Amino acid sequence: MAKKEKENLEQELKDRFARWDYLREYGGSDPTWDDAVNMNLVRNHIIYYKSAMEAEYGGDREKYPEIYFRETPPETVSGYMARAAEIRNKAAEVLEIYLADANFQYLLYSRQILSEKEALKINIGNVLGYVSGLADALKRDDLIAMRRHTVKPECYQESFASCAEKVKQILSEKRKLAGETMERQVTLFQMGLEAGQCR
Length: 199
Hints:
Layout: H1 3-26, H2 35-57, H3 84-100, H4 102-110, H5 116-122, H6 124-140, H7 143-151, H8 153-197
């Protein structure tokens, strides 16, 4: 193995240990899996790079870099999430922010006056579901679902705003159509009156 490749093995192992340490203390941002899954994945990488060094250096202990002798992390128990209490507290704060969001409140009101077809067209049910989903995650203590909202809550608020604009456009078009219909009815009524006067 070339010197550069040996140095790469050492650096890769250092990087994997650093990543495992980070996940243990701060957690990740995976939207689907808990921190244990990613920590165990990184652990497997550590084992792989240690094995690669063993294949290269054999029994000559002096050739091994210092990082090799760091103990391989144990398997992390399924369900582990770093900063669990912080995630719960932040999720509760985010839920309050969502509930107070003007666009969210507008969507709640507007949902009642949209037809089923209009509601499906703009996915208003899904957008409102972000909030009920977070409330349910808090109730069930689903830390993975909570974390999705605590990483970038503004993304969900942007969805509220975007959906609210679509609702306003639909209602504006309905008002315009209703106005045109009323105008036609008034015109026909006036024409009827004028026709009656000519008799």
